[in-house]
Amino acid sequence: MPSDTNPYGGVFGGWLMGQMALGAGALASRVGKGRAVVVSATDFAFPGAMAVGDELSVYCEVAATGRTSLTVAAEGIARERNGEATTKVCSGTFKFVLLDDDNKPRAVAEAALTAND
C-alpha cells in the first residue's frame, strides 16, 4: 500500500523486514511444534527495489539449531505486478527461542519428541 512506501515511492524496508519475520516465525513455530519468539534479527540486505503492487514471496529455511533456539534464514522475492519478472528484494536472519507453557525456554529436542507422538 502507498502508506508502506519510502519517500522515493519504493516499498519501505521495515515493511519487508516485517513480512520476513512473519514467514520466519511461521517456520520456527512449525518446526518447533509450538511457541517461538524472535530474539534477534541480523544480516539484513535489500539488493533490489520493490514497487507498490508487486507480489512478495518469502522463502525461509532453518540455518542452525541451538539448545533452545532456531536460526532461520529468510529471503523475499518480488514478482512484478503485471508480469513474470522477479527480483530478490530482501534477505535476513532471525533467531527464535522456543517457549513452554510458562514462557520459559524449552529444548529444541523436546519439540522433536512432540513431533513423533
TrEMBL record:
Residues 1-102 form the HotDog ACOT-type domain. PROSITE patterns: HOTDOG_ACOT. One of its GO terms (biological process) is acyl-CoA metabolic process. This is Acyl-CoA thioesterase. InterPro entries: Cytosol_ACT, HOTDOG_ACOT, HotDog_dom_sf, Thioestr_dom. It comes from the Bacteria. GO terms for molecular function: long-chain fatty acyl-CoA hydrolase activity. GO terms for cellular component: cytosol. CDD domains: BFIT_BACH (cd03442). Belongs to the acyl coenzyme A hydrolase family. Pfam families: 4HBT (PF03061). Keywords: Hydrolase.
